[in-house]
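Thanks for the sequence, V.! I ran COFA1 protein right away. Repeating your input here for the record:
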Amino acid sequence: LHLVALNLPFSGDMRADFQCFQQAQLAGLTSTYRAFLSSHLQDLSTVVRKTDRYHLPIVNLKGEILFNNWVSVFNGNGGQFNIHVPIYSFDGRNVMTDPSWPQKVIWHGSTANGIRLVSNYCEAWHTADMGAMGQASPLKTGKLLDQKVYSCNNQFIVLCIENSFVSDPQG
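Predicted structure:
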């Protein structure tokens, strides 16, 4: 399952699932992508289909492994990953080095176990208000789920996860 960043940073007011869907389509990716965020409808840990949570690796756009599987992201260690494996945007840029993302922080709105934090998810990702708060993770920690709170007016990286694996019928 591919983990890919949106092509630009976003404040807490985003239509992230739609952005993930749209940018994946524009990049020619055929499977479904959902935002790597807890929402008012769903905890982050349940975004990927149950059948795909255990046996498929989580990889970047170039197929390099970030996690052995989806459930390993939520084992309580904050989603520790190898910081030497880049995370790319849908248009192929490395979010860790590209200046388009001046703040190397990702929004997630979750606990370290991928459960939604209702008080810290920018009002279900509908506000960029300076007084509202969102849970996010500085990438320099090497964790996707580090527990830091930021004002929703910050423009951070938004990740998208391929939420169901569809094998190529021509394969």
